[in-house]
Amino acid sequence: MKDKLIITCAISGAEVTKEHNPAVPYTVDEMVEAAYQAFLAGASIIHLHAREDDGTPTQKKERYLEIYRAIKKKCPELIIQISTGGAVGMSREERSDVLNINPEMATLDCGTLNFGGDEIFINTENDIIYFANKMNQLKVMYEMECFEKGHIDSTKRLIKKGIIKGHLHYSFVLGVNGGMTGEERDFIFLKDSIPEGATYSVAGIGKYEFTLAELSIIHGGHVRVGLEDNIYLDKGVLAKSNRELVEKVVELAKKHNREIANPKETRKILQMGEK
Known about the structure:
This protein is an alpha/beta fold. It contains nine helices and 14 strands. It has a single domain (7-269), classed as TIM Barrel, CATH 3.20.20. Helix content is 36%, strand content 19%. The strands form four sheets. Strands 1-2-5-6-9-10-11-12 form an eight-stranded parallel β-barrel, surrounded by eight helices. Strands 3-4 form a two-stranded antiparallel sheet. The protein has a two-stranded antiparallel ribbon with strand order 7-8. Helix 1 (28-41) runs parallel beside helix 8 (242-255). It is globular and about 45 Å long.
């Protein structure tokens, strides 16, 4: 029997702008409304990147805390998943400072990736160990972001060493420049490569968003959507909101008879402890 479907909504990201899609939230109020509407549509997790009011991405913990508290005030049930990705060139200390706001959940990037051009998203083995140890210390649930198969293999080595522990929850981020594409074969390869008993979510970038969402729904996995990953509802049709993207996933879930998990059910499925 498949678990209920966990929907994560990545409402803003660090790269997409209002020039790409006017619905991308920047301000605290815009972030709160985007998160709340996504929740009403069926999302139980909000994947959060902080932005300044002018859209500049920031890893300042003060800005994260401001947004985090505002969303929680509006919708206390929501799980807010903090991004520790930061920006290319940031040190691990800069990127991890946001963990000090004591979030319930955060991302753990599990390998280095070419991001196109001269940009390299660096996550050495020691970086992964550093983030995992800090999250373990602060009792932050991590979602392991894997952009290709080698990243999963890295987690397995660290699981054996007792560094990565607790319930294992993966996020397959597919379709990024320099990472695996988002074809069905890629999804199946990653799904079949994770440890027994682990759960997973799939984030398809751009054109892969909904085809991968449907595959994950069919196979019992979970789904991430949102304007960070894809700005279109259909080919050439800009999404009017993050909520529209969530609603499309809910329709796909109905098609395949998967019920939607609320935040309480999501915490149970992911075996999340109390914060």
